[in-house]
Structures are given as C-alpha cells and as structure tokens.
Amino acid sequence: MDMLLLLLAAIAFAWAKKKDQSERIALLGAALSRFDIEKLMQSLTDGYLRALGEEDAERQAQVWSYLEVQERTLSEQFAAFAAAFAAQDAAATRVSRLPVAIPYAARWWPAAGFDARQAFAVHARGIAAVIENQAGLSPKRRAFTLSAELFLMQHTCHWYCRSKAVASARLLARHTTTYQQVLQSVSPTTRAAYGQLVGMQG
Predict the structure, then answer these.
(1) Where do the structural domains in the chain lie, given as residue ranges?
(2) CA distance linking residue 121 with residue 137, whole number of Å
(3) What is the CB neighbour count within 10 angstroms for residue 102?
(4) Global pTM?
(5) What is the residue-level pLDDT of the chain in tens, covering all 202 positions?
C-alpha cells in the first residue's frame, strides 16, 4: 500500500509539474510570438563573430554599423515585450528561487520567488543602456557586454518556464558559458538591479 501511495504521489507531482511548466511556456510564448527577439539575438551573435573575425578595419567598421541597426531593433522590440508582459497577472509571473522545480511553488510561497515582469524590465533597461553606450565602450567590449545582457535575459526566460538549474544548463549548452560568467559580464547597473531582484548576495 505504501508503494502504491508513493507511486500515485509521484505521478501527481509529475503531472502538476508538467501542467505548471506548460502554462508558463504558453504564457511567455504568446507574449514573445509578436516579436522577432530570438531571431535578432541569433543574428547579432553571428554578426559579432563575423565582425571580430574581420581583419580589414574598413570592412569591420561596416559590419559594426550594420549590426547597430539590428541592435536598436532588438532593444525596441524587447522593451515593447517587457511593457506588454507587465500587464500579466502577478500570480502568473512569479518565479521560484527554489533549487528544484516544485509545481506552483512561486504561487503558494511568493516570498521565495521574484516577479518576472520586474526582471524583464531590468533586462530591457540593461540592453538599451549598453546599446546607447553612455559608458563609451569599444565596439568589441560593447558587443561582449551586450551579448551577456542578452544571455542573462534568455536565462530568465528559461528560469521562468522551468527552473534556475535548467536555465543554467541550457545557457552552458547553447552558449558555452556559465551563469556566473554571464553575471560578471553584464553592466554593473544590470548586475546590481538583477541581483537585488533575484536575491543574490554581494
């Protein structure tokens, strides 16, 4: 009887976990479907590699100039996405800080989570600030910092849909970089605002 109860509990847990994640994926997917953010991210990532590998200075400058248009388009689209997502219900946008995915944990224990709407607002500001380049970064350093801003934003998307562990694993698999490396590579302003929101120390 005990084994049967454990089996039923495991089945119920797995079902609830899948349902919770499916709802989150559907909500985020619907909000993102109006934009070309992922496509623009990939284009910029490929473009940065092309620019950095270009030996001719004039040709490199042309590539950087071309990429600036895509950067501004991505920034505008992500800002619009963040504004639209901000209208979502607060209960549906909580993200659990727990190390493992527990179904609906962010809803029944909101203090152990953060609001994805606020996180996306942080990312939107961070992306825009790097593109505006008020810090006067070189093209190479600017591209490096903006890439980190975009990777951290993508990490938040995956964290919201599944868990922090899954988001970090996907970040490493897709971009060959760790969560901590990305955190150290974004702008100081983003790192401070993000850290305060998600509860990081230091």
Answers:
(1) 2-198
(2) 23
(3) 17
(4) 0.89
(5) 577 666 665 665 565 567 677 788 899 999 999 999 999 999 999 999 999 888 888 888 888 988 999 999 999 999 999 999 999 998 899 998 876 666 666 666 667 789 999 999 999 999 999 999 988 999 899 999 999 999 999 999 999 998 899 999 999 999 999 999 999 999 999 999 999 999 874 3
* Long-range CB pairs of 40-48, under 8 A, 24+ apart, other chains included: 40/70, 40/73, 40/74, 40/77, 41/74, 41/150, 41/154, 43/70, 44/70, 44/71, 44/74, 44/146, 44/147, 44/150, 45/147, 45/150, 48/143, 48/147
76 in Cβ contact with 159 (< 8 Å): no
What token pair was written down for 1? 């009887």
Which of 52-67 are b and which e, b meaning 16 or more Cβ less than 10 Å from the residue's Cβ? Answer: eeeeeeeebeebbeeb
